[in-house]
Design brief:
CATH class of the largest domain in chain A: Mainly Alpha
Oligomer: heterodimer
CATH superfamily of the largest domain in chain A: Butyryl-CoA Dehydrogenase, subunit A, domain 3
CATH architecture of the largest domain in chain B: Up-down Bundle
Helix content of chain A: 40-55%
CATH architecture of the largest domain in chain A: Up-down Bundle
Largest sheet of chain B: 4 strands, mixed
Structural class of chain A: alpha+beta
Strand content of chain B: 15-25%
Chain lengths: ~400, ~375
């Protein structure tokens, strides 16, 4: 057992920290620190900065432009990004489509799609869920019928995050109807500019527009956009889901947020003192911090096992459940910290207006964040599904 | 022992339920909360015509002599409909204070108009540092000849934007946390030095931040005797806590119904969600949370009606339970709806938002747990 970083790791940490300090644009940092939503341009600017440094496709094999970092270095990197409160990297291209293309794609497909992803010139979104297929993903109905050198695609995708910004969508489609629903699914890449693709926003209860419906009406897709064999899409989907679930716990960001909440307890007035004088509140904060510590070390154990050549298995389901529980629990504690000042609703325009905010400066995002974060126990395989995975894979029932 | 409603109370309940089911449609509500007023003045008139606004007032004041149980019946039914019209700040809080402390003149001036729905009022009791402590008041009032001079800041004043008059809690003597030395003033918001910043809350209700700067209000606007407002304020807030707890119970009942219905129709893995035992147990738990809350609500309403010695303690027990159950039922209802639960277009998310703000209004679980222990 050795729980400390090596000297080399510490040097690496310093290098990452100073790179971020020197290169993180002040205007984006200002938005992030003040709870003003960042635009697609902001995210793209930041991702391009990392990309130029060679620090964007962190997990890719070196031959495709990855870093070749050890697991520990990757962990340090994620922590530093979170500590500096940089925009969350959009996973659809770099963490999802990219790995699928270099794992299952032909050389021609790799040459065609990987550069756009790693350079941040092409934005991707994920066409998985459908109105009738949420947790039961394999029941999907979007149909792709072969017609010469094209597929004709018809169907509806939903909960498509950032589809309004995307140039391309990777889709699970049904190329064959079989008795076993996992068969007959194929993995297809579709240009969002193709006639017949229509994006409609879904507004969520916090008032934000992150997710969309994507309607596919007789969309003509060249057969060379099929990844892997026809009908082998479910294997790719499973490969991707395991990818999606690692890092979904968001532990580094949680550590930053809980530190922030602790600072806030010394800033928020309560009677003649501060919120930190409220023992019941501080009890809850401390309990959550201990729970977070346990989740952090669970993640480190997984990382350590992976660095010895293991694969993320059901551990990623544990991390997803615990991480999202903590994200929701912490977002609720922020709400409690504010009392009545969690209630005023501030639009995006209000946030940047000169009139000033209602209540403490950080208050405007607290309730929207709590409401928005109901999603984390639903997306990426709901926590009920994760429990099924653990029951089956770990407990053997 | 009898927990059943009287015939009149049952009629009241039926009349509100009919209104909510037939007229108070979700789409109509959603359109109304987007207007500047934030609710429907036509509906408010309907409430007046049907006698709901006059319910808590004595017949001497032009009301219907309703007690805590009648108030509970009204709010539970309004909760089921997610009614956003400002019954509590206007009728229960402001009306409650005027009817308890008002001079004959003040009662004559305000109560008939509250009951007829002609005016809107609100009570400015919270300040940025006070959280839920009613005695924590920095806003000051100093006698100046025939007037009082008010200075201070009031936070998140419910129904502030449409109020013709605002009852301001101010300190005429003592230190920040003293229960003695608090006075109430019926303030005309158009007075010089009063500024309101109006906004919407996440639950669709409206509120104001109120700054009082060297505001000169006539001594006749003092409500009740100088320095002695605390006990009436506490009594009225306790009654409002019962009211908002009843609203929460109506919301939880409705959310449980909607969720159960949804799980009976939504299919995954070839079966309805309701056929999965793991989900059945969770819906049983939210149902039990509702039942436990209902029990304390009825107990509390009875104790407030009887003016029991332990009525205050019952209020805190109830609001603690409401806070716990609201979080449980609210979050589970959304989760069981999956992605649909977090969309703006589905009603469950809007019930969830109101239930979430209710967790804090008039004191969250921590506040009421401490108050319960101290009483």
């Amino acid at each position: 057992m050795n729980l400390s970083f090596s000297e080399e790791d510490l040097k690496f940490q310093d290098e990452v920290r100073s790179f971020i300090a020197e290169n993180y644009p002040a205007d984006i940092k200002n938005k992030m620190d003040n709870g003003i939503p960042v635009s697609k341009d902001d995210i793209q600017t930041w991702q391009k900065i990392l990309s130029k440094k060679g620090w964007f496709a962190v997990n890719w094999p070196e031959e495709y432009g990855g870093t070749g970092w050890t697991i520990t270095q990757k962990h340090i990197f994620q922590n530093e990004l979170a500590n500096a409160n940089t925009p969350t990297l959009v996973p659809f291209g770099v963490s999802m489509c990219g790995p699928v293309v270099y794992t299952f794609g032909t050389q021609e497909q790799k040459d065609r799609f990987l550069p756009g992803i790693i350079n941040n010139d092409v934005w991707w979104c994920q066409g998985y869920s459908e109105p009738g297929s949420g947790s039961d993903l394999a029941s999907l109905k979007t149909k792709a019928v072969k017609d010469g050198d094209h597929y004709i695609v018809n169907g509806t995708k939903t909960w498509t995050t950032m589809a309004q910004h995307a140039d391309w969508i990777f889709c699970l489609v049904r190329t064959e109807t079989t008795d076993i629903k996992q068969q007959g699914i194929s993995f297809l890449l579709i240009d969002m500019n193709t006639p017949g693709v229509e994006v409609k926003p879904i507004i969520t209860i916090d008032g934000s527009h992150e997710v969309n419906m994507v309607y596919l009406d007789n969309v003509k897709v060249p057969v060379e956009n099929l990844i892997g064999e026809e009908g082998a899409g479910w294997n790719i989907a499973k490969f991707l889901l395991a990818h999606e679930r690692t890092g979904i716990g968001g532990i580094p960001a949680l550590k930053r947020e809980i530190r922030r909440l602790r600072e806030i307890t010394s800033e928020l007035p309560l009677g003649e003192g501060f919120l930190k004088d409220d023992e019941l509140f501080m009890d809850k904060l401390n309990k959550l911090e201990i729970d977070l510590l346990a989740a952090e070390y669970s993640e480190l154990r997984t990382l350590a096992a992976m660095s010895k050549g293991g694969h993320p298995g059901p551990e990623s389901s544990i991390l997803k459940i615990k991480g999202t529980d903590l994200q929701q629990g912490l977002s609720d504690l922020f709400v409690e910290a504010l009392g009545y000042y969690a209630h005023p609703f501030m639009s995006e325009d209000d946030l940047i207006s000169n009139e000033g905010r209602i209540g403490p400066d950080f208050a405007a995002n607290v309730m929207p964040h709590y409401l928005n974060y109901r999603k984390v126990s639903i997306y990426g395989g709901s926590n009920e599904i994760q429990r099924n995975v653990i029951a089956k894979a770990v407990l053997g029932i | 022992m009898d927990f059943s409603l009287s015939e009149e109370q049952q009629l009241l309940k039926d009349s509100i339920t009919t209104f909510v089911d037939k007229d108070y449609l979700f789409d109509v509500r959603q359109n109304n909360i987007k207007t500047e007023l934030g609710y429907s003045s036509d509906f408010w008139k309907t409430f007046a015509d049907l006698g709901w606004l006059g319910m808590p007032f004595s017949d001497a004041d032009g009301g219907y002599n309703g007690g805590p149980i009648d108030l509970m019946v009204i709010m539970e039914s309004l909760g089921r409909g997610l009614v956003v019209e400002p019954y509590i700040p206007n009728v229960v809080l402001a009306g409650g204070l005027v009817s308890r402390l008002g001079s004959e003149e003040q009662k004559q001036e305000f109560l008939p108009k509250i009951i007829s729905g002609e005016i809107q009022m609100s009570v400015a009791f919270s300040e940025p540092q006070s959280r839920f402590d009613l005695n924590d008041v920095i806003t000051s009032a100093k006698k100046d000849g025939e007037n009082y001079i008010l200075d201070g800041y009031k936070a998140v004043v419910m129904n502030g934007p449409s109020s013709n008059n605002i009852i301001v809690v101010a300190r005429t003597s003592g230190n920040q946390l003293d229960k003695e030395g608090l006075s109430l003033f019926i303030v005309d918001p158009s007075l010089k030095g009063v500024s309101l910043r109006n906004y919407s809350n996440v639950d669709g209700s409206k509120a104001s931040e109120i700054t009082l700067e060297n505001v000169s209000t006539p001594a006749t606007s003092l409500l009740g005797s100088e320095g002695n407002a605390f006990s009436a304020l506490e009594e009225v807030i306790d009654l409002a806590t019962l009211a908002i707890s009843a609203e929460a119970l109506g919301i939880m009942e409705k959310m449980n119904e909607i969720t159960l219905e949804y799980t009976k129709t939504r299919e995954q893995f070839g079966e309805t969600l309701s056929s999965f035992q793991a989900l059945q147990h969770r819906m049983v738990d939210t149902f039990m949370a509702y039942e436990q809350t209902k029990s304390l609500l009825l107990m509390c309403a009875a104790k407030l009606t009887d003016k029991s010695d332990d009525a205050k303690k019952a209020v805190s027990a109830l609001k603690y339970q409401v806070g716990i159950a609201a979080k449980h039922v609210g979050e589970e209802s959304v989760q069981l709806h999956g992605g649909m639960g977090v969309t703006e277009e589905t009603n469950i998310g809007h019930y969830f938002k109101r239930l979430t703000t209710i967790r804090a209004i008039f004191g969250n679980t921590d506040y009421h747990l401490k108050r319960y222990s101290a009483l």
